[in-house]
Amino acid sequence: MKKICFRIISGNTVLALLAGVLSAFLSACSNQGADKDISPMIAAWKTADQTQNSVCRPYLKELEEKWDADTTEDQEQSYMEFLGTVNALRDYAKNNPSTRVEIRNTIYEVYGKMLYGSDKQDYLEAETIKAIKKAVPLNDQTLLAELYKLMAELTADEPLRSAIYDTKSIDILSKRDRAEDFYLPEDYALLAYTFYEAEDWKDAIKYGNMFLDISTGDTSENVILDRLAVSELVGTSYMETNQWDSCSAMFENILNFNADSTLSFSEETMSDLADLKDIAEGKYGLVQAKWQQFAPARQKTEKYLKNSLGSKDTSGIIYAYLSSSMINSGEGDVKKAVSDLKQARRYATTKRFPRLQTKIYDQLVKAFEDLGQEDSASVCKRKLQLLEEKISTSKQNIELLKTKTEHELLQIQNDIDTAHHEKVSKRSWTWLVLLIVILIAIIAFMMAGRRAFRIRIHKRIVRQHERTVLEKEKKNIEMMTASLRQSGMLEEDGSPKKLSDEDTWNAFRQKFTTLHPDFFDRLNKALGRKATPTYEKVSVLIRLGLDNADIAKVLDINKDSVGRTRRRIRELAGCQTQEELRDLISGF
Question: Whole-angstrom Cα distance, residue 387 to residue 582?
Fold first, then answer.
C-alpha cells in the first residue's frame, strides 16, 4: 500500500514539474518582447493628419531588411524580434482598444508572417480582408489603399490577381495625390509587364505610359534603360491593338534617343541600348510595311532578321519574317511571302508563341488563297481554328481569375456601402421613431437586394463555367472522333477496331505512320530507349485521345494493365502527371 502511494505521489510530482516547465516556456514565449520599445511606432500611429500611412511604411521596410539577413542565426534572431514586437503591440491594443490600432497590428503582423512564412496564405488573406472590413467605418481611404497594397503583396504568386489589387490601391491614392508615398516608378513598369504577359494590351499601355510620365527627367542609367524597354513594350501593345500611329511614335522615340557625352553609361548598358534600338527599328519596319513603305521597311526588316538570328531572339525572328512576308506580298511576290511565313512558322512551333502563330496562319490562309492552293489554305484554316480555341481557353481562364478578384472587390465594396448606410442611420437616431423604422426597413431591403444580386452573379459565373467545360468536352470528343476516323481506328458502325492481333496492329501502325511520320521516333527519343510494342500501342491510343477503359477494350487487355503501362511510360518520359504525359504525346 505504501509503495502504491509513493508511486502516485512521485508520478504526480513529475507531472507537476513538467507542467511547470511547459508553463514557464509558454510564458517566456508570450512575454517575448514584453520590454520591446514600440513607442516610435505608436507615436506614428497617433499622428492626426493623413500622412500617418506613409509614416508607418518604414517599419515594414525595416522588418523586410531584418528578414533578408545574411545568416540563419540572424534570420532566427530577426524573427524573434518580430514576435516580440507583435506581442508588445497586442499588449498595447488590450490596454488601448481602438479599431485603427487593431488594423495597424494586423498590417504589421500579416506582413511579417508573409515574409517569414509562419502562417498559411489563405489565413493571411482572410485576416487582411477582415481588416479591410474593419477599416471601412473609419472613412480613411488611404488606409484602405494600404490594405489593398498588402493584399497585392500577399498574392504576388498570382501576378495578375496581385496587379488587380495594386490598380485598386493606385486608383484610390491617385485621387488624393498620394500614390508616390506607396508606389515607386518601377512598380508601374512591373504592372505594365504583368498586363503585357497576360495580353491585356489596354492596361499594359495605361501603366506603361504612367511609368514613362512619372520617370520623366530621371537621367540615371537604369531608369533610362527601363524607359526605353517600357517604350518598346507599349509600342508593341499599340501594334497588337492596331494603333499604328501611337505605335510608330513609341518606336521613333527609342530610335531618336542618343546617349550624349554628359551621360556616362557602362559598356553593358550601351550594349542593351543598342539591342533595344535594333528591336525598335525592326518593329518600326513592320509598321512601315503595314503603311506600304516597302523600301525602308525591307532595309529595317533584313537588319532586324540578321540581328535576331545572331542573338537567337525567337520572337524577333518571327516578327521579322512576318514583316518580310507583308513586304513581299505587297510587292506582288506571294510565293516569297509564303516562304517567309513558313520560316516564321518553323520558329513559332513552340507553345510560347500561340498569338504569333495565329498571325502566321492567318496570313498563310490569305497567301494560299491568292495562289489558288485551296487544300493548303484549308489545312491552315483548321490549324488556325485550333490555335484560336486554345487562346480562347487561355483568355477564359484569365477572365475567370479577373472575375474572381473583381468579385472579391465587389464584396468589399458592398460592405463599404453597407457600412456607409449604417453610419447614416446611426446619425439619424434622434429623429422620430417612425422615420428610424422606415430607414431600417430600407437598409434591410437594400441588403437583401445586394445579397440576391451577389447570388445571381455567382450563379451566372457558375453557369458560364459549366457551359465552357461542356463546350470544351464536346469539341474534344469531336476532335477525337475525327482523329480516330482519319487514323482508321473506327469500324463502319462507329465502334473502335480491335488491335489485339498482330496483323491488324501492323496495318494500323503503317497507316498511322503515314499520317504522323515522326511520331515513333519522337516517342523513342522521349523515352530514351526503343519503345516496346505495348508502349507504342498505348502511346498511339493516348495520342488519339482514348482513356484507360477505351484503350483496354481496343487492346483486349485488363484496364489495370493499361494503367501500369501508362505509369511506366510516364516515368520513362520524365513526366510528373498523366496530364503532362498526355500533353507531351499530343505534341508528337
Answer: 18
3-state secondary structure of 264: coil
Q: What is the pLDDT of residues 217-233, one digit of tens each?
A: 888 888 889 999 999 99
Q: Which residues contact 10 (CB under 8 A, 6 or more apart)?
A: none
Q: For 496, list phi and psi in degrees, rounded to 5.
A: -70, 145
pLDDT tens sequence across 47-99: 655 556 666 677 777 777 777 766 777 778 888 888 888 888 888 888 888 88
Q: What is the DSSP letter of 261?
A: T
User: Residue 523 and residue 538: Cα distance in Å, rounded?
Assistant: 11
Cell of 326: 507583308
Looking at residue 530, its amino acid is: K
Q: How far apart are the first and last CA of the chain?
A: 83
Over the stretch 108-149, which tens digit does the pLDDT of each residue have?
888 888 888 877 888 998 899 888 888 878 888 888 888 999
Q: Write out the H or E segment, with its range, that includes residue 497.
A: none
pLDDT digits (tens, 9 = 90+) for 334-366: 889 889 888 888 888 755 677 777 888 888 888
- Burial of 266-285, coded b for 16+ CB within 10 Å and e otherwise, reads eeebeebbebbbbbbbbbbb
Q: How many CB atoms lie within 10 A of CB 449?
A: 10
Q: How far is CA 338 from CA 60, 328, 349, 503, in A?
A: 58, 9, 16, 42
**Would you report the helix, strand and coil content of the chain in percent, each value rounded to 5?**
80, 0, 20
Taking alpha carbons only, the member of 224, 234, 312 closest to residue 269 is 224
| Number of residues assigned to the chain | 588
344 burial level (CB within 10 Å; 0-12, 13-18, 19+): buried
User: Please, what is the angle between helix 374-427 and helix 121-135, to 10°?
Assistant: 50
- DSSP letters of 171-234? HHHHHTT-HHHH--HHHHHHHHHHHHHTT-HHHHHHHHHHHHHHTTT---HHHHHHHHHHHHHH
The SS3 call for residue 496 is: strand
For residues 337 and 328, is the Cβ–Cβ distance under 8 A?
A: yes
